[in-house]
Write a structure and sequence with these properties.
The structure is a single chain. With 242 residues, the chain is an alpha/beta fold. It folds into 2 domains: 7-84 and 181-239, 3-Layer(aba) Sandwich (Rossmann fold); 90-177, 2-Layer Sandwich (Hypothetical Protein, Haloacid Dehalogenase-like Hydrolase, Chain: A, domain 2), CATH 3.30.1240.20. The protein has helices at residues 25-37, 48-55, 57-62, 90-102, 131-144, 146-158, 209-216, 231-239, and strands at 7-10, 39-43, 65-68, 73-76, 79-83, 113-116, 119-122, 163-168, 172-177, 195-199, 224-227. It has a 7-stranded mixed beta sheet with strand order 5-4-3-2-1-10-11, sandwiched between helices. Strands 6-7-9-8 form a 4-stranded antiparallel beta sheet. β1, α1 (25-37) and β2 (39-43) form a beta-alpha-beta unit. The mean pLDDT is 94.
């Protein structure tokens, strides 16, 4: 049984929703009640418009705040309160374009490099993929480890320039200035005695790992970073909180 916390932080894709899809109706109804009784926040690599599409306006107004683009775009009750500015350098863009061209994966669905506030999302498959195409790429990447390999090569080449790539969601990489990943939001929760974070990408190199590590570094035995398998896993844990 998971004990109740002072504040809850949730990733979105793979944690509250199927990747890039809308929230399950039953879970949504439960989550609205949960958010009305608890202080809940979102921490996602997606931009606000996509998160709004997935969770809906009711959820976005029920939570306390939304850290979009890994904390580089912050929203409260539908209003933007902070936006970071950073643009991808030409040589980095060329590296990513070459990674798309050299991939053995042949399906291309467009928008492989998406500039967001303070970060870039990259995908060999592309942002226009259907759910079926995404599922095929997930199987391919699970077998081949393509995203991890691209991230490793990227970080070897560009870390000294102050940027980093992390595996994110089902098909992409998040690219940010070092220190401007999800870890950066932890200072906003310093006054909370207990913090509980749910995410599906806490493995080394995953985009939930930096925030999970930052929570662990608080050295508070009542904090937690829960690595979930999917939104159903999150739902099950929340129902068991007392």
């Amino acid at each position: 049984m998971q004990m109740r916390s002072d504040v809850y932080i949730f990733d979105v894709d793979g944690t509250l929703t199927p990747s890039r899809q809308q929230m399950d109706a039953e879970f949504k109804a439960f989550f609205l009640e949960f958010a009305s009784a608890n202080q809940c926040y979102i921490a996602t690599g997606s931009d606000y418009s996509k998160t709004l599409e997935q969770l809906g306006e009711e959820v976005m107004h029920a939570i306390m705040g939304s850290y979009n683009c890994s904390g580089n775009s912050v929203w409260e009750k539908g209003k933007s309160v902070y936006t970071a500015e950073w643009k991808l350098q030409d040589n980095v863009r060329k590296f990513l374009e070459d990674a798309v061209e050299s991939s053995h994966w042949k399906i291309r669905t467009g928008t492989h490099i998406e500039q967001r506030p303070g970060m870039v999302n990259f995908s060999v498959l592309g942002r226009g993929a259907t759910p079926a195409q995404r599922a095929l790429y997930v199987d391919y990447d699970t077998d081949e480890g393509e995203r991890s390999a691209i991230a490793t090569a990227f970080n070897k080449k560009f870390n000294e320039t102050g940027i980093i790539a992390q595996v994110a969601g089902e098909t992409g990489l998040d690219i940010t200035i070092i220190g401007k990943d999800k870890r950066q939001i932890i200072s906003d929760f310093a006054h909370y005695a207990n913090v509980l974070f749910f995410g599906d990408m806490m493995q080394p190199g995953g985009n939930d790992e930096p925030l999970a590590n930052a929570i662990k570094e608080r050295n508070n035995p009542n904090d937690g970073a829960i690595w979930v398998k999917d939104w159903k896993h999150t739902f099950s844990i929340l129902k068991d909180i007392k």
